[in-house]
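Box S1 | Example of a co-folding query
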Amino acid sequence: MRCARPWPRPKVSLPTFFVRDVPIYGDVVLAPMDGITDPPFRALGRLLGSAMAYTEFIHAVDVLQRPQWVWRRLRPRAWEAPLVVQLYGHTVSLLVEAARRVQDQLGPAIIDINMGCPDPSIVRRGAGAGMLRSPLKIARLFRRLTQVLDVPVTAKIRLGLDEGCKPYRLIARVLEENGAALLAVHARTQAQGYRGQADWEAIAEIVSLVRIPVLGNGDVRTPEDIARMKRTTGVAGVMIGRGALANPWLLARCPRDAVPIEEVRRVLRWHLRANIQHYGPQRGLVLFRKFAARYLAPYPAFQARRRALLTLEDPVSFLDAVDAVLAEAAASGTTPGPREPS
Ligand SMILES: Cc1cc2nc3c(=O)[nH]c(=O)nc-3n(C[C@H](O)[C@H](O)[C@H](O)COP(=O)(O)O)c2cc1C
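Box S1 (continued) | Returned holo structure for flavin mononucleotide
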């Protein structure tokens, strides 16, 4: 199989689902990832087919104490819409005030509350997945947020804290009853972190319990996984994290080994240029290295030059080295070549 060029995205005439009154076109969504879904990668995600643009999570206290830093970091573009700004925190009043300021300053389509971060230092304070311990606090938070904000408010949850504490059924109901307009479910517990198998049956259970749209998340790595999660759980959409980092074309339902090398080259260059525009040449290239390593991972020619390539400090030499890897990969013919799909 070889994938057709996935952008510009095909026009979809009818919304796939609504987040309250916000129409969503498409059923695949790039997951929020700290250090990954910055403005350039979000933009790429939207171009390749993500139906929504989730930001990295932002601490409510940062919004209140150093707003200029937050606005610079998020710097959304109009064409990213629908933009979802994700906040985390543990104090209802601070989260509500931060959400109000984000709404007024950035005009996102949706504000999302993170209830899934497993980092012990965040959970201990009752934020991230720590929120799942307090259904009453969640109820108060969502009641206040939906009273104060004009935009829809959504939540991203895990199933619970560990095997002995999985209150996802109750939390889903509490969220819906208190005005949440969508629920994204990472089907693991906090204790699992990012390991172990995601429990898609729990996602299906949540879908059957609530009427708001649910995004299923966890262990989606191939186009077949997207189809299987939709079929077996009934979710409105599929949210993809690490799978889209390894293969951004997964957002266009394209398996990595079907992406022509010329398309990899084009997207890599586009992404690096966007990084340099956003961060400046030096930082833009340094922050791009983790993405470059993933774009080039499938090619044996990269493994031999990995260290040398990823330590280059000048974008022109960097792109020359990338071209050398891709040319060698195309010549070896072990992966799809630079021809366009027939
Ligand atoms: C590097 C990294 C950073 C993440 N940062 C966030 C975040 O800021 N907000 C959030 O809700 N989830 C975050 N997540 C969790 C992902 O959104 C997603 O729920 C998780 O990776 C499971 O999906 P996957 O199996 O498709 O990767 C992060 C995950 C990773 C790997």
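The CA atoms of residues 312 and 318 lie 6 Å apart. Confidence is low (pLDDT under 50) at residues 337-342.
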